[in-house]
Structures are given as C-alpha cells and as structure tokens.
Amino acid sequence: MTPDTLLCDIGFIGLGVMGKNLVLNLADNNYSVAAFDLCEDKIAAVIEQDQLENTTNSKRVYGCTSYSQLLSQLKAPHIIVLSVPAGAAVDFVCEQLIAAGINDNAIVIDTGNSLWVDTVDRERKYQNDFLLFSSAVSGGEVGARFGPSLMPSGSPEAWARVKPIWQAIAAKVDATTGKPIERNKPGQVISEGEPCAAYIGPAGAGHYVKMVHNGIEYADMQLICEAYHILHTGLGFSAAEVGDIFEQWNNGKLDSYLMEISVEVLRHKSVDTGTALVDIILDKAGQKGTGLWTAMSSLEVGCPAPTIAEAVFARSMSSFKSLRTQASTRLKGPELTPLSEQEKQVIIEQLHDAMYCAKICAYAQGFQLMKLAAKEHGWTLNFASIAKIWRAGCIIRATFLQSITQAYERNEDLDNLLLDDFFVAQLSERQLNWRKALCSATMLGIPNPAMSSALAYYDAMRCDVLPANLLQGQRDFFGAHTFERNDKTDGKKYHVQWSTLERNTVAID
Q1: Does 188 share its domain with 210?
Q2: How many angstroms separate the Cα of 463 from the Cα of each of 132, 381, 452, 458, 459?
C-alpha cells in the first residue's frame, strides 16, 4: 500500500528527537502517520525505525516531501501535530500549511515549548484558517516514545477530537497506587490505568502549566545537586557512594525519576578515563528559559517562589566559571575538622529530611503560582488533575505527587500545599532535621541556595508577623508611600509627617 492509496489518521511535522519518538508512539497505538520534515534524512530515519520496530507487518508511517502532499494524505477533518522549535518556526509552518490549502476545520497541535502568551496570540491569529490547539509535552526522548505527560489546552471542540489520541499515547498510572505502569519496548500498548493527559483549559493554559512544571523541575534538580555537593565535597563521599545514598533515598519518600537518573549519572564511569563521569563534567549548567519564565511570572503575579528563582540563579552562578576559579583562591572559607563516620551518618539522615521538606516547599510555590495565575487570567485549573498527569511520563514524576493529588482532592480550593494536614504533619516532623542539615552545610562552607531559600519560605509562611511593618515605615519616611495600621480599619491609609517637628500621624483620604 502506498501513500497514494491510503489516507492517514494524523499528519506530523518535525522529526527531531521528540517528533520522531512521538510518531513511533502514535504508530504503536495503531495510528497511521503522514510524516514530513524539511530534512529528508529525518523522514527516512523515522520510516526505517518504524520498519525495524514494527511487529505487525503493516506499514504505519509514510513520508511526505511537501506540505501539500501531507495534506492530501490525511483523512478529513485533518489533525496535524507540530514538533518544531518554539517561536518563529511555529508561525513559519502554520503559514506554509495555509499556503498549501489547509481547511478551516483542521486542527494544528503545537507540542513545542512555546511561551504561553505566544500560544494565546497564535490561536487568535489563525482562527479563520484552522483550529490552533496547543499541547505541552513532558518526558524527554523516552517519554515521547513510550508515554509522555501531556498538557493540552485550547478549543474544547478540538480537545474532543484529540482526546482519544492523546490518552492512548500518554503515560499511564495505576489508579489505586498512583504508580506508573511501565511501558518500555516498541509495540507495547498500555490500555489500562489512568492516562497522564488531561485538558488544562483555554489557549495558553497548558503551556503555562508546563512552564511551571519546568520551574519546579529546576528547583528539584538543584535540590538534588545541593545534596550531592554536601555529600561529595563536604563529607568526602565518592560519586558512586553518593549514588548509593541516593538509591536508598529513592526507595522511600524521595522516590522520583530525577533521583533515579541521578543515581545512574553518579555511578557512570567515563569510558576513556575509567573515572566517575560526573567528576570530569565541567560545572557550567545550561538552561533553555522555562525556569526563567517561571521566576519572572512569579514576580509579575506577586507570588513568592524563591526556591525556583534560586535554582535559576544557581545555573547563572555556575556560568561564571573563571570568576569562581579566581575567587576560590582569595575568599576564605571555614576551617574544617574531620568528621567521624557516625557524625556523617547523622548528617545524611538530616539531609534526607531537608531534601524532602524543601521539595514540598518547591511544589507548594509552583502550585500557588498556578493558582494565582489562573485567577489573573480567568482560567479554571484542576490542581488534582494536574498533579495526576505529572505522576508518570514527565520529568518531575514522583511517588510524592500522589500525596499532592490527594491534598487537592480533599480540598480543591486549597490556597497552599503547606496548609494541607498531611504536609503540615510531614514538615512538622522533619523541620528540625532540615535546620540541622543546613547548619552543617553552612559550617562546611557548602552553598545551598535552593534548600535554604525553601526553609526561609517555610519560616515566612508560619510567621504571623513579618518585618514588613518596619519596611513600610521606611517607605513612608523617604517616599510618603503610606501604611495601614493593625489597630485600625483594614484598607485605611496613614502617613507620618516626618518633615515636621511634631511628626503627627494623619489619615489619608
């Protein structure tokens, strides 16, 4: 059977790492795909891979050499998935599809890491040409191939058509335990379990939620790295030994994909040197912007997210390698005394609790940010549903997310995760170890910006009176910015006449 005699279920444009694997995932789930890329080698590669992995003896992926051929090979109404870089490339492909004659009831799905406001603009821009639908995708290469977490948003009518496809290819979790149902080989199809794909809301909402997911991801990764730094540099454990500690942690409350892959990285030895690979990787971290976008958004909506912001700053700090190398020879640190093995084991236990508590705070910051953004933009976000679709497939997938799901099922209007009874108990039980671990890190001279900012966030949240009263006094002194009084009616403004001898306090109408 050739493309000329077959109309495919789905069109796919962009066959890079993510696109190629999403195509193969669709094919495994019995969808025929017409695939196009500007690079002919990528078209040939995905067809070759499909033929190699396909056990059904039927062709599932068909290569197209132009946008017009792609459209001619699709069943109506068309569904076309884009996996192209965010930004101008998305608009370029959309314009090419319009020029090729796409019909106005077609659905074009943007699966890239687009900035959410760009998605809102694009839906409006192309509304007379086709239905632009967005769907953030998390899970990387492996997730795309065997089941990602999908965060779709846009037209409800478009979602009704896309839903069965997305739920088929998404990662699945056991409905009772919240544990991922493993799918790790070509041709395998998981039909049971809850799919990690749920409609998020209007245009832009899905990409916003994915943006916050990535901000939490930044924080989660930084927390793990800080624990590694304390254990490796502060306590003197080898990379492999830190991997062993992390493996133990991963069998309990800190069970997560990021912890799992950290164990793999720490244990891996360089082929050419025979030493731990992590010891020869240059300590300069890259970033693609989503963590920065999250931190910026938190400032814009007035939501404190210090742990996410510190994770972004930590990557920025790492980029100043030559400056840090110079400073390391001049800036004095603490005088260290050797620790006994018993002392090290105590710190390890304390550090485990510090990691867990800081992780709770990082997620609390992300979920509160989504709540405030939803209020500002008129979205109705289901936070239990969002936590559910992050339990498998995505980069921050973790057993811990089952507890977050249950928190929002208990109270869908929960203002902050720290106020849920379960998390109140968890933090109360472990906060002393958290403090002790950070004391040890400080005395060892090991930086821990994310972990310590999370503790500051926790302490600020439990503090009934913050020193903002003095800050407001300062602002009133130099700028006549006024202040409210806690012994007077809410909302009433006052100002002290600081320039006069009497310095009377006057009410401001």
Answers
A1: no
A2: 46, 29, 16, 9, 6
Burial class from Cβ neighbours inside 10 Å (0-12, 13-18, 19+) for residue 221 reads buried
Task: For residues 295 and 498, give the distance between their C-alpha atoms in angstroms, rounded to a whole number.
Answer: 37
Q: Specify whether 259 is located in the same domain as 383.
A: yes
What are 329-371's pLDDT values in tens digits?
A: 999 999 989 999 999 999 999 999 999 999 999 999 999 999 9
| Peptide bond just before 77 cis, omega within 30 deg | yes
For the chain, how many helices (H) and strands (E)?
19, 11
Distance of alpha carbon 243 from alpha carbon 119, whole angstroms: 40
Q: What is the pLDDT of residues 285-305, one digit of tens each?
A: 988 788 999 999 999 999 999
Measure the CA–CA gap between 237 and 278, rounded to whole angstroms.
13
- What is the model's pTM? 0.93
Distance separating alpha carbons of residues 176 and 165, to the nearest angstrom: 24
Instruction: Quickly state the pLDDT bin for 5 (edges 50, 70, 90).
Output: low
Q: DSSP code of 448?
A: -
Catalytic residue among 123, 194, 217, 310: 217
- The catalytic residue among 20, 42, 172, 210 is 210
Q: What angle do CA 243, 450, 178 make, to 5 degrees?
A: 60
Q: What is the dihedral of CA 67, 70, 71, 77, to 10 degrees?
A: -130
Annotation marks residue 484 as catalytic: no
Domain enclosing residue 365, as ranges: 206-327+335-461
Position 2 pLDDT exceeds 70: no
217 is catalytic: yes
Residue scoring higher pLDDT (52 or 330): 330
**Do residues 250 and 350 share a domain?**
yes
